[in-house]
Amino acid sequence: MKKILLACVAAISFASGAQSADLGVPRGGLDTVVVAPSFNWTGFYAGAHIGLNSLSGRYTYLTTPLPAPIDALAGQQFSRSAGGVLGGVQIGYNWQAAPNLVVGLEGAVSLSSARSNFQRPLTVTQFGAPDNFRIANTFLGNVAVRVGYAAGRALIFGKFGLAVGTFSFREADPALAPEANYNVTRAGLLLGVGAEYAIMQNVTISAEYNYNYFGSFATRTTGLAFDIRTRADVHVGKISINYLFSTGPAAVVARY
Q: For residue range 26-62, what is the model confidence (pLDDT) as tens digits?
């Protein structure tokens, strides 16, 4: 019994000494872990864009009575396209309503160089000489709702809304003066699709296609008592760069 008691005392003394030795060793600093921020599309953004646009014009001579010898033009139709470069700015707001659902509102304005000069491709010419035409699209604007699917920093979206376009038309008949110049600003509809990616926490790039429909409207020709009815559709392909003013919560620092 005495031997057992001595052995227990010796064990307790050894454990106490080891613990006292541990107390003399300074403890190291706590590890710091930085949790990467989760990307969030919610917030305002602004940026600029550049691209190409194509104006498709379709001209129809109205079937109302025309003065001779141009009455044979009534009801005839021809089409022409004009291409160019456009550039402008945009501003908008995104709301990430669900983990993968992003909805927003965007407004954009662009200046366009789309223009084409041509002669009327008809068998009947006015007073024996072909008319010279020019069509141009000088301005485009839109306000559109965007609905997209987000996968982290990537966003695929569709958009629809109101479009505004300014167009210029000219018809010059070599036999008549003065030439007819007609400028019009039209409201229409916009449909578009695109993809956007955040290359940095606050910077995104996107590529998209927009179709702008402006319907048809009458344009007065060179001082004569008849009209040409014109339909204008504008197709746009553009790339954009945006700065996001908010991309969700900042990084969370945890200490262990």
A: 555 555 554 445 789 999 999 999 999 998 877 666 5
- For residue 202 the two structure tokens come to 């606050």
Residues 6+ apart with CB under 8 A from 1: none
pLDDT (tens digit per residue) in 204-253: 999 999 999 998 776 655 444 446 667 788 999 999 999 999 765 543 44
Q: Please compute the mean of the pLDDT values over residues 1-7 and round it to a whole number.
A: 50
3-state secondary structure the chain: CHHHHHHHHHHHHHHHHHHHHHHCCCCCCCCEEEECCCCCCCEEEEEEEEEEEEEEEEEEECCCCCCCCCHHHCCCEEEEEEEEEEEEEEEEEEEECCCCEEEEEEEEEEEEEEEEEEECCCCCCHHHCCCEEEEEEEEEEEEEEEEEEEECCEEEEEEEEEEEEEEEEEEECCCCCCCEEEEEEEEEEEEEEEEEEEEECCEEEEEEEEEEEEEEEEEECCCCCCEEEEEEEEEEEEEEEEEECCCCCCCEEEEC
Between 70 and 148, name the one with better pLDDT: 148
| Separation of alpha carbons 224 and 78, rounded Å | 19
Query: Using 50, 70 and 90 to split pLDDT, how confident is the model at 255?
Result: very low
Please state the φ and ψ torsions of residue 131, each to the nearest 5 degrees: -80, 145
Q: Which residues pair with 196 in a beta bridge?
A: 155, 206
On the CB side of 218, how many CA atoms lie within 13 Å of its CA? 9
pLDDT averaged over every residue in the chain = 77
**Residue 80 tokens, joined:** 């022409």
